[in-house]
Amino acid sequence: MTDLLGYMLWFAVLIGLAVPAAVWMNRVYAGVPAFARTERTILRMAGIDGSRGMGWAEYAIAVLILNAVGFFLLYAILRLQGVLPQNPDGIVGMSPDLAFNTAISFITNTNWQAYSGEAQLSYFSQMAGLTVQNFLSAATGMAVGVAVIRGFTEPKGATLGNFWTDMIRSVLWILLPMSVLLALFLALQGVPQTLLGAIQATGVEGQEQIIARGPAAAQIAIKQLGTNGGGFFGVNSAHPFENPTIASDLAQTWAILLIPVAFCFLFGIMAKDRRQGVAIFASMAVMFVIGLATIHLYETWGNPLLGSGANMEGKEQRFGAMLSSLWAASTTAASNGSVNAMHDSFMPLSGLVMMVFMQIGEVIFGGVGAGLYGMLLYVVLAVFLAGLMVGRTPEYLGRKIEAREVTLAMLAFLSMPLGILVFAALAVTVPAATAAIQDAGPHGLSEALYAYSSATGNNGSAFAGWGAALPWHTTAIGLVMLLGRYAIILPMLAIAGSLIRKQPAPESAGTFPTHGPLFVTLLVLTVVILGALTFFPVLALGPIAEETARLAGQTF
Length: 556
Prior knowledge:
The protein is mainly alpha-helical and 556 residues long. It contains 19 helices and 4 strands. The protein has helices spanning 2-30, 33-45, 56-80, 96-107, 117-120, 123-153, 163-189, 216-225, 246-270, 274-301, 320-333, 348-359, 370-390, 403-427, 431-434, 441-456, 471-499, 517-541, 543-551; strands at residues 199-202, 208-211, 395-396, 399-400.
């Protein structure tokens, strides 16, 4: 009962923060007059007319240009960090394949870590490379999210907005002030923020050790708020320098979900019908609560084969099973990827929930902006199915959902099984790839399946035993991260561009309501059924088979 009350209070605080955040975001994207001069100055310096609206193709090209430039700059920084400034520990440049993987990881908002930050990255790479891309990749998702909302809600003849303006507004007026506040709080909790190098210390038993430190608080703030997830240190938010207290832990879990949840309410505000946003939020929340409950129950019950009590293997004592479960559910639901416990050590069905959260496209609550437009993909499919059942042309917010929109939605959806199933199959069969698998049996399959689910879903977390740094996987996972990001963004922008050209029809007695419990149920079932039909067979061979073996007394 105490845990239940704790979760309810945590959720209430999250909603209490997200609603006013959505109101503020609506003002920002509509244009705050007091901010206009700053925005125009920045855009003018870049030679961009930020007042000109864009069609979906031009918006998509702008997204690709920014991300391509970001990739090449970050790749160069990582390769050359050995000769660049702010490198007090003398760290050499990354290898070509690892730099390729890391650069793609950070431009796609995945932040997959095939490296250990304190040992393989200079302060310059952390700040000018990774932290900058944490802002830009998050702003990209937010800008695309707002553009897609406009496509669904703006009147016929309007545009999707201007990508450069939306991106600048996302960074300056949303991400940056929130990050400053969170970074200050984390620093007060004991997270280091310094440009001094590592220090040598003597342990309590007289042994000498090197303690890494650096400008961590600033990067951790944006890694959470932007659903990036890449940690300053190798073990991420399980490290006491990244996450020293229960207060810092709770603040970071709220930060992970704050903007994704706010996007649900922003959708309702921009649609001028808040019930629409509440319906999408309710759909996400139902699935999140079911998943969290499953993880919590299995982790607090523990494994009787290993003794009585909660499953504490791979967890920090200062967080325990409850806060570890909350973080695991939040980070895999939100396309964040940071960890405060090692997911490899969770119970088999807990791992299954985390994989399902990623495999359905990171739509519960997903990345900043990305979760909302990912869920709108399922909305298109749900209203199409509803239209088939009642014999009417499907509509959403008055606009007809026709063959073009459904085709684009299915193309976007199919990118998930392509990235997960095809590449995971290669990972467990190609000799150059199988060395990454640490454990035998179904758990070994789960390691590979989790890795490619995480990469395709732009999540970034992994089972701890997975050998992510093998050249095969740094290359393959880099390609999969590109697929998972842009194979969703481009079709969703195209759907938005198609819908905004249509004249909304007035609501009639035959209109299927998309704001009540019936629609929420239909949307949840659409997500679950599509995910189950696509991934259930391989999940049966991985975590489900491992759970069956556990019940029979066998562990892996």
